[in-house]
Structures are given as C-alpha cells and as structure tokens.
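QUALITY CONTROL LOG
STEP: pairwise intake check
CHECKER ROLE: data steward
CRITERIA: each record must contain a sequence immediately followed by its structure tokens, with no blank fields

ENTRY 1 OF 2
RESULT FIELD BELOW
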Amino acid sequence: MSDAKLRAWVQNWIELGPILEAIRRRELEAMTDECGKTNRDPGEIEVTCGLGKPTLDFVKRMQDLGVSRLIMPPPAFDKDGLRAGLEKIGNELISKC
C-alpha cells in the first residue's frame, strides 16, 4: 500500500469500540425493558459478548452493562504463544475482575 493510500485510509478510520459499546448498551436496555413486560428478572439472563483484544477498562464496562461472559480470539496459535497469552489474560484481566 502506498503512503498516500495509507494516509487516506487512516483519515477515514472509524473507532468502532465506542460505537459497538453503544449498540450493546442499547440492546441490553431493550432486553431489560422486555423483561419488565414479562416479569422476568434480567439478572437471570447470562449475556455473552464477543470482542477482540480486551482491556481491563472494557471488561469492567461490560460487567457494568450486565455482560456475564466475554468471548475473545485466542491470543496466539502456537503452544508457547498460547500459553504466554493466556497467562497474560489471567494476570491482567481475570485476576482483576
């Protein structure tokens, strides 16, 4: 890719994280509203959310929205990389939530 094409692409870049979070928030609010109409406790529903590379802040925001499970791609595909990546996820995310 040429420098000019790369600059054009970057200038048109849209950060999807906040957009996806707003969509998740709206969907979860709609689910809570529907639960209210049927006398169902929305806390009984386990919500799963997919994501790319999570940060601790993102995980906590999803918890605040009521997400009970996060799905992410493997941190690597080789044995050593997978082991190191899972250890990092355990130390930086799971142990702090």
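ENTRY 2 OF 2
RESULT FIELD BELOW
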Amino acid sequence: MLKITTMSKSKHWGTLKFKDVIPKAIGKFNYIYNVGTKFYFHTNHRASNYKVVMIDIHENYDPAKISKSPFISVIPEHPQNVLTSVNIFGGKLIC
C-alpha cells in the first residue's frame, strides 16, 4: 500500500489528506524521486529481479485501475542480474 499527500503549511499533521497510489500490497515500492506528478520507484512488482518504474499520479489518477498496470518501465528487469539499488545524482539515475 502506498499513499501520498501534498505538504502544506498547516501545523496540524492530522488534517493532511492522503491519496491512494497503490491501494493493496502488490510488491515493494521504494521511492527514488519525482518530477511534478511523475514518481519514480524501484520495485519488484512483476519483476523478481527488480526494475524502475514511473507512475504519473495526476489529478485523475485512479488507483482502482492498478491491475491494468499504470506503471511505465524506465529500467526494465534484467533476466539474470538483480537491480539492488537505485539513486539519483545530478538528475541522473545511478544503478
């Protein structure tokens, strides 16, 4: 399960409204970075050797359609090698 919220200047954390991105446990999703509404994750969802995907969490994003795989593969799963970590440096993905 993965949720996001827009950070505001509110002093009351209890008033934050969270939006479902991934409503159920379908794999591990490690946040890498985002550019606006495009979020990049290191994941084992449908990839036992891991891959990097992008999810565009725009205003009309519907987490109920998660089974239709809204993920865009940025770095595909390698058939033999495990993608153990991904970082960002200078706007570039480092694997």
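INTAKE CHECK: passed for both entries
DESCRIPTIVE NOTE, ENTRY 2: The mean pLDDT is 82.
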